[in-house]
Amino acid sequence: MTNQIPHTPASHPPTEAPLCILIGCDTFYPDINGAARFAERLAAGLVARGHDVHIVAPSVTHSRTGVFTESIEGERMKVHRWASWRWYPHDWLRFVLPWTARARARAVLNRVKPDVVHFQSHIVIGRGLAIEAQKRGIRIIGTNHVMAENILDFATIPNAWKDWFVRVQWKSAARVFNTASAVTTPTRKAADFLELHSGLTGVIPISCGIEAANYTARLEPRSENRVLFVGRLTSEKQIDVLLRAMTKLPADLGATLDIVGGGDQDHNLRTLSQKLGLSDRVTFHGRVSEEQLLGFYTNASVWAMPSIAELQSIATMEAMASGLPVVCADAMALPHLVHDGENGYLFKPSDSDDLAEKLTRVLTAPPERYLAMQKASLDGVKVHDINSTISTFEALYRG
């Protein structure tokens, strides 16, 4: 199995003895989302530095289970695939049966004997590994990429039970994260959010990081006004707000919108686009190759992220690394990336009028102003270097 997303973090041989690191993921390649991409890049970067990295992840199909040597981000590593089932309310999600996780965790820990366990969510695989690793005195690091509220879209429970469900999920998260020597999440805003709802303290913000050199910025005026969104087509992304904003842009801009990605709202959003009369201005590209994705970033005029539930937004960082002005909702962690009036603008969440106004500001900016926003994006993304992220986790692994 080969990951088709070849990023190449620089190799930094460890100055101390290599570690055996077990990373537990409820979502991993071939899933396409921020949590999976982060785990892939972290694992590949650690392998490049000489560490022995093992991944625990759901199987790609129910029958294809076991231990496989897989190429992830250009690096080969052992991936322990646990039997999983499709969750059909979701367009791609697979889950491991919760009551099997601890027995499976015991088996993999006995086989691998890791120096450290790093789980990427508290839900199933992370829970099983954390409980069993704690019994063995293995150092545990926990990272949170999940808002309990986001699970509601796919939980298929009555509305009357939703508040109870969220409270239970946060209590569950607290129990699992309390097994860890250190708890991290991608931004300070996300750390504050986790502490507020779980009761945890001392959560460490560590950027997911990207390899900015893999992206190409075109620092010149655009001949077309192309708005770009890349991400999962799910309700919390509020892509419907972006579609409505497109109808409110000045007609003489001739602006078009490229939507890259798939998700459970794909059909609904295509239908809405037709109802709004946007069929000739909005293109749904679905999932694309990495080469195609890089082309979309390079050739766009402005990035739009209307989501209200981003704990960081790797896609927004990728847009910044591609030299794009960014227009994002003033929600959750997006203000950490958008310096309003410098590399783009923040807009009122769910407000299509404000989004349209901010997109118009970018698309009508004089060339020197547009170039200044591009350069501000390139400068702003420098602090999110993946190699700094990997070094920070190495330090946490060693205590």
Provide a descriptive summary of the structure in words.
The chain is an alpha/beta fold and 399 residues long. The chain is built from 13 helices and 16 strands. The chain has two domains: 20-206, Glycogen Phosphorylase B (Rossmann fold); 212-383, Rossmann fold, CATH 3.40.50.2000. α1 crosses α13 (386-397), α2 (101-112) crosses α3 and α7 (239-246) packs across α11 (352-363).
Task: Please name the defining characteristics of this protein.
D-inositol 3-phosphate glycosyltransferase; 2 domains; glycosyltransferase; alpha/beta; six-stranded parallel beta sheet; Glyco_trans_1; Glyco_trans_4-like_N; transferase; 13 helices; globular; Rossmann fold
Which structural class should the secondary elements be placed in?
alpha/beta
Compressed to H and E, one letter per element, the order equals EHEEEEEHEHEHHEHEEHEHEHEHEEHHH
Classify the fold: give the CATH topology of the largest domain. Answer: Rossmann fold
Number of strands: 16
Work out the radius of gyration: 21 Å
Distance between the amino and carboxyl termini: 33 Å
Shape assignment:
globular
Q: Which sheet architecture does the biggest sheet show?
A: 8 strands, mixed
Determine the fraction of residues in helical runs and give it as a percent range: 25-40%
Q: What average pLDDT do the residues reach? A: 91
Number of domains: 2
Q: What is the highest CATH level, the class of the largest domain?
A: Alpha Beta
The CATH architecture assignment of the largest domain turns out to be 3-Layer(aba) Sandwich
Uncertain stretches? 1-11
GO molecular function, one term: glycosyltransferase activity
Pfam families: Glyco_transf_4, Glycos_transf_1
Protein name: D-inositol 3-phosphate glycosyltransferase
Keywords: Glycosyltransferase, Transferase
